[in-house]
Amino acid sequence: MGNDTTPATPSADSWTAEQWLKRLTYILLSIILVYVVLHLIHNKGQEYFKLNAKQVQRISSLLLSADTTKKDALSKKTTEDHKGKKPQKTSPDNKNGDSATADTGVIVRPPIKTDTTPKGSETRKPIEEEICDSENPVISFLRIEIGALAATQERDIKNYICQFRNEPREIVAFLTDTRYKVDAFFYLAGPLVYLEVIFWSLFGVLASLLYYVSDAERKKDEEFDPAQIPYQKAKMFYAPLATLVLVLGYSMIAGENLVDIDAGKGMIVFAFLAGFYSGRTMNFLDRLKEFLLPGIESESKISTKSGKGSKVAAVGVNLLLDPTGLTDQQQKDIAQAGFKQATITLTPKAGGNDITLVAPTDDKGHNFTGKDIPFGTYTMKTAFTVKDDAGVVLQFNATQEVDIKQPQHTFEIKIRKSEDQG
Predict the structure, then answer these.
(1) Domain spanning 312-421: which CATH class is it, in words?
(2) Is 23 strand, coil or helix?
(3) Cα→Cα distances 13→21, 118, 179, 373, Å
(4) How many whole angstroms separate alpha carbon 416 and alpha carbon 353?
(5) What are 48-92's pLDDT values in tens digits?
(6) Which of 13, 44, 78, 144, by CA, is between 20 and 30 Å from 300?
């Protein structure tokens, strides 16, 4: 037996940014292929449509025109009927309805009318159907503006127009409030909306990961941490579920039917953004937990103080003032107010929730602290707003990247007046 020289597949912990980028690309292309094939095979996409103000005005004009035409035609026919009647002489001995001419007095018996049309072959429509046919311009207008309507919905609209054919305002109000279900590529009506949400949320997650990993590959530095790959994989599962929960929650609050919700193309945009910024989505749900379940300790906070690869640090930030662009009096005012109202956040470059450092307890303090901060590279953002004695609002900010690789870290940050304030 020969020796097996097949190279072992490297584990995710040893992947480079380029290797992980290739796999993410394959995953995204595979999901896009499934998405497109599904929509082409199961071509039953639908969406809801409502008339805008101009379309409603046009329908009102059509109904008013049809109503006016109908009244004019009726008035003209009545006038013609009155003008066309001629007086006829009737013989005193005429008991059969015979008529006599005015000149000769000769009695003329009217011809006997016989129905030669075979029974069952009448082609004349009932008067109600003829009246309803006069409303066809409205249906034609809807088809032009919206597209092909569902057969049942078109029948219902026709029946409503026929029923209220003498009340144009009622018809306009009905057509204005109606949601028209039309064919579309996307699943934006019915229960398949949730499948659309899952797909687009997943697209958002993958787009976010591709951006981060490609940026790390471009910089060719140590910013990419393979230890974050399992966390990034988990995003592909929890982000679509979290987005789905938000959509369901919105549908319940809005009082919509959970099986047939009204989702426009804005739902696709929301699902993509919720996946792209999945860290913020989870942060929102975490804050929502405090509102729905007050006083209950978060079960999602898993201790990172033990176990392999669970390195955390205690971080301190000393906030200093850059006097550039400030008067002496403004510097005194800021020193008097202190930095307690400032905010300092750490945004993981590998993705995840923002970490807000704890402000000093002393009003004039300038030391911010954070505990159990996982090792990694972060973007540290500082924002501070204060008013001087003259009532002028001063804004300060600072942004810098920091590497946390030791159990204890202390940073000094100088904040300076925003440039757009002069």
Answers:
(1) mainly beta
(2) helix
(3) 14, 89, 52, 21
(4) 26
(5) 777 878 888 887 877 776 555 555 555 555 555 555 555 554 455
(6) 13
